[in-house]
Amino acid sequence: MAVGEYPFPEMHPVAGVKLTAVSAGIKKPGRRDVVLFELAEGSQVAGVFTLNAFCAAPVTVCKKHLAAAPIRYLVINSGNANACTGEQGINDALATCESIAQLRGLKKEQVLPFSTGVIGEPLPVQKIVAVIPEALEKVTEQGWDDAAAGIMTTDTRAKGFSKQIVWQSQTITVNGIAKGAGMIKPNMATMLGYIATNAKVAQPVLQALLREAADKSFNRITIDGDTSTNDSCILIASGQVDLPEIQTAEGELYQQLRDVIIEAHIFLAKSIVADGEGATKFVAVDVSGGGDRNECLDVGYAVAHSPLIKTALFASDPNWGRIVAAIGYAGVKDLDAAKVRVHLNDVLIVENGGRAASYTEEQGQAVMSGAEITIRIDLGRGDSHETLWTTDLSYEYVRINADYRS
Amino acid sequence: MAVGEYPFPEMHPVAGVKLTAVSAGIKKPGRRDVVLFELAEGSQVAGVFTLNAFCAAPVTVCKKHLAAAPIRYLVINSGNANACTGEQGINDALATCESIAQLRGLKKEQVLPFSTGVIGEPLPVQKIVAVIPEALEKVTEQGWDDAAAGIMTTDTRAKGFSKQIVWQSQTITVNGIAKGAGMIKPNMATMLGYIATNAKVAQPVLQALLREAADKSFNRITIDGDTSTNDSCILIASGQVDLPEIQTAEGELYQQLRDVIIEAHIFLAKSIVADGEGATKFVAVDVSGGGDRNECLDVGYAVAHSPLIKTALFASDPNWGRIVAAIGYAGVKDLDAAKVRVHLNDVLIVENGGRAASYTEEQGQAVMSGAEITIRIDLGRGDSHETLWTTDLSYEYVRINADYRS
């Protein structure tokens, strides 16, 4: 199941970024499960990664390599997360990097490895290494569709974004692909995102922009509250456009680029939620009137994670009592329940500590019957405002996750 | 569904505590949905309540009445929570108290009201008031079974505890009944508990004992992470035993009484979990080696609330990767993943940052196939130790909560 329309777009090429997907037979024979990115010399790369203390081996390696050398290749496998694999996992991730580096006369630090799939199984590194020559030969600027499909695990559809802006007669392209269906939460769960542009951006500016964009997008989505060991989001600037390098987070060109890059992140993040495991509803939780950002996020996540609310959403049941209960236990200090107002889309359902006088069950039912729902909460105590995106909790979610390893 | 054997025990009478259940037709005609406790003069009463900011009207009234006057009656209705009902809800709860007070020549502050059921619907106060005379007439020391059944909502079985100790030829009885199936979490979700003894205990000692016992029991259970608006736990000491009053938390008699009262709380709390909505597994999450209590609880709740772990439990799948992922994102600062050890019952599954060398899938499968499972986590960084109890997440949970209002 998946909610709404997120058709895979026509992906413009990004000069300096070639990619492909090949089949290593990691989990299922014939499935294209190894994706390779080749970046032109001079490309700048930024990354943000999971905060999970049990971060996967490739995450550990990525962080080290990003700090050490100019990145020229990204290699991603689906079907195995190489997580909780101890010292052997690190060696396996390094071996994958080394195989590419040797064939191209680079240092292994110039390759970033990524893995997604089952946790705790040894990475079948020989299978991956065996298909690297084929992948190196096949990379092409037209490879975005194949790459988007190659990184999928329980995703039911490939996720992509592509947009162009023109600046001084130069076309700047921003492309993105992502995967991730279950286990999505703040700080990004088994979620991989790759956004690339041909713009020329200094690395520190690129890194700060990625942090801002990830915070507004992948760090604001949640399906089941679990944060994975492998989440990674990479932003690439190949620099192939004939314009001066953007060296500070200022100016009209930076602003235009920033807007599109944030748009790409939010679109991909919402695509992930809409394809959440077993999702039948796409739900925005919009919390305003908070004393600070954390109050809004605490309330937002309490609502977005409540299994009682999520099952009510699945049942299209306007059970607003469960929403106020979640607001009440979110831990906002000295919350005045009488000042809280809750809307379902534009229907006022709660005010003055109880059901709004104007509210009728029919109004609530009409909203809940839709596939896209906004739960709007005004805490009535400040100016902070945050939005999260989540899904309902269905039989299908239980089935997918009870069956995942079988 | 319900896990394990928690047969309703033979309930000894507690001198000074009479109770009954009568039918007011609140939700279903004929169901006995109003329970009345009558306490002998001189009874001491202690209470702990939900921390939810949207606490229900009866909770607000209970707290006020407990502080104001000697309590003589408790009145509980199931089928309607009288929560998020604003000012009218308070008036309705008070009207219920007033009806009992008038018939018995007491102040309304001498009555404690409780409600459990659907949130946000007006309390059908006239229906309740109408059956109070019948309830007053019917109360009996033999009424425990009826009362335990009368407070149930989605519970599939009544929950009771009864035990006696002898002190200086005097028999001291500790009885308890409780309800609560879904929406159970720390700080007690839609959970009501009533524990009574004929011992003679000063109110401050009783209150401190209740806090300790609730913290070790009802505050350590979780089914779906939601904390309700109505949770209440009451401890009554009727003082009908012919012994001096216990005035401090010291001495052999206090210790013996304390042990039984804590045992009662833990037994009732575990009974609630074992009857969790749709539960097919009873799961203890035992976290040791924490730097402090909060580290243990953060890790315990991350594991106990993870839908991915709960669906794996439902599938009897020893998917230990999901367990380490949850430990990793629990937010323990500077957690050294290499020092964490995880057992399923007595089977070591994780050490040195990955799967234990000795572990086999068959061992894990054997544990997970059982109905009662302990997930033992040693954080390897201190001496703190906490245990939580929870359940799996099944299709049945989704069905119950998607259907609850229909």
UniProtKB/TrEMBL annotation, chains A, B:
The keyword Transferase applies. Its EC number is 2.3.1.35, 2.3.1.1. The record marks T116, G117 as: Involved in the stabilization of negative charge on the oxyanion by the formation of the oxyanion hole. It catalyses: L-glutamate + acetyl-CoA = N-acetyl-L-glutamate + CoA + H(+); N(2)-acetyl-L-ornithine + L-glutamate = N-acetyl-L-glutamate + L-ornithine. Keywords: Acyltransferase, Amino-acid biosynthesis, Arginine biosynthesis, Autocatalytic cleavage, Cytoplasm, Multifunctional enzyme, Transferase. Gene3D superfamilies: ArgJ beta chain, C-terminal domain, L-amino peptidase D-ALA esterase/amidase. GO terms for molecular function: L-glutamate N-acetyltransferase activity; L-glutamate N-acetyltransferase activity, acting on acetyl-L-ornithine as donor. It is found in: Cytoplasm. InterPro entries: Arg_biosynth_ArgJ, ArgJ-like_dom_sf, ArgJ_beta_C. Its main location: cytoplasm. SUPFAM superfamilies: DmpA/ArgJ-like. One of its GO terms (biological process) is ornithine biosynthetic process. GO terms for cellular component: cytoplasm. The active site is at T190. It holds the Pfam family ArgJ. Pathway: Amino-acid biosynthesis; L-arginine biosynthesis; L-ornithine and N-acetyl-L-glutamate from L-glutamate and N(2)-acetyl-L-ornithine (cyclic): step 1/1; Amino-acid biosynthesis; L-arginine biosynthesis; N(2)-acetyl-L-ornithine from L-glutamate: step 1/4. The record marks A189, T190 as: Cleavage. Substrate binds at T153, K179, T190, E277, N401, S406. PANTHER family: ARGININE BIOSYNTHESIS BIFUNCTIONAL PROTEIN ARGJ (PTHR23100), ARGININE BIOSYNTHESIS BIFUNCTIONAL PROTEIN ARGJ, MITOCHONDRIAL (PTHR23100:SF0). Belongs to the ArgJ family. Heterotetramer of two alpha and two beta chains. This is Arginine biosynthesis bifunctional protein ArgJ. It comes from Cellvibrio polysaccharolyticus. The lineage of its organism: Bacteria, Pseudomonadati, Pseudomonadota, Gammaproteobacteria, Cellvibrionales. The gene is argJ.
